[in-house]
Structure to design on (329 residues):
């Protein structure tokens, strides 16, 4: 099944990517969860991973499907085609709304009457002239559930997202230390965040995705933090081979796990942080300092001066300095 959208020759339109494009075919793939995607938030010694990242990388799956469909269309229509899945600055959500797949909700994500919040999007550009489908209309009404549930208050207003406060951005795209005031609200979310998606009332019409390679791996539904934090680079690559998690690398991933450990309230996890105070990656060392200070403040304070003497990274030094200040009477 496919949807059509007209293109217009304006700045940022598909014509800037391919001057010959006359139509855009937008497609969506459902990846709805079989259970409550927020269930694991209550288990603070386990990790919560965004639903889309609990198995294979969707880019590969969708691109393969789009190429097959595009090839069949090109053969029948005698047209040229190009396929895009996050591989170029394509405005998928506005195009999907114009094509009638859904509308951009107050959380800025696409919402579908049939699939709720759980859709991957892809685009086929073609030089064939096609009649467009009617656009979808906004059906959010007065609901603000997605805005109110955000742990970090990343929505300054409906339909506006401050990415600098978004947990998905912070745990996936953001490099270096996560801002201190946003660490506690992250909880045990180590890769992405589904809160604003999961709470949408339109999900009452959603169905579980049928693509087997998108169904959650058992070991990624609620993996123990203690297991994940011990992954070295080689083990990380093996464990997340074929997963979208692999692209952030071991260091950023372990940084996220340490933030979750600091939020766990489990003092028995403090030793995991201690083991990484000498890690080669500064983002890991800094997160280990913070986690240790949250779980066993006295332990952290007792180590602060010795580690400060040898630490050269300014961000990690700032973490130890904060420990010292917090320990003062």
């Amino acid at each position: 099944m496919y949807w059509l959208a007209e293109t217009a020759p304006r700045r940022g339109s598909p014509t800037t990517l391919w001057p010959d494009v006359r139509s855009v075919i937008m497609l969506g793939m459902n990846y709805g969860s079989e259970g409550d995607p927020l269930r694991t938030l209550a288990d603070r010694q386990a990790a919560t991973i965004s639903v889309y990242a609990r198995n294979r990388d969707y880019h590969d799956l969708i691109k393969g499907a789009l190429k097959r469909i595009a090839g069949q269309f090109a053969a029948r229509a005698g047209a040229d085609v190009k396929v895009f899945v996050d591989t170029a600055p394509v405005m998928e959500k506005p195009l999907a709304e114009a094509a009638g797949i859904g509308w951009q909700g107050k959380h800025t994500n696409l919402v579908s009457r049939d699939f709720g919040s759980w859709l991957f999007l892809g685009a086929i550009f073609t030089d064939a002239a096609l009649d467009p489908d009617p656009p979808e209309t906004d059906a959010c009404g007065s609901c603000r559930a997605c805005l109110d549930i955000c742990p970090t208050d990343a929505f300054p207003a409906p339909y506006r997202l401050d990415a600098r406060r978004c947990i998905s951005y912070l745990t996936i795209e953001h490099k270096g230390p996560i801002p201190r005031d946003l660490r506690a609200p992250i909880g045990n979310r180590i890769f992405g965040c589904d809160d604003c998606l999961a709470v949408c009332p339109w999900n009452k019409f959603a169905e579980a995705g049928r693509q087997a390679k998108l169904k959650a791996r058992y070991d990624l539904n609620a993996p123990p933090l203690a297991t994940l934090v011990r992954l070295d680079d080689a083990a990380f690559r093996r464990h997340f081979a074929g997963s979208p998690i692999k692209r952030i690398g071991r260091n950023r991933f372990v940084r996220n796990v340490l933030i979750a450990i600091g939020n766990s309230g489990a003092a028995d996890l403090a030793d995991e942080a201690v083991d990484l105070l000498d890690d080669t990656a500064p983002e890991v060392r800094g997160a280990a300092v913070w986690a240790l200070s949250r779980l066993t403040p006295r332990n952290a304070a007792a180590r602060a001066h010795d580690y400060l003497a040898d630490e050269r990274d300014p961000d990690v030094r700032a973490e130890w300095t904060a420990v010292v200040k917090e320990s003062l009477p």
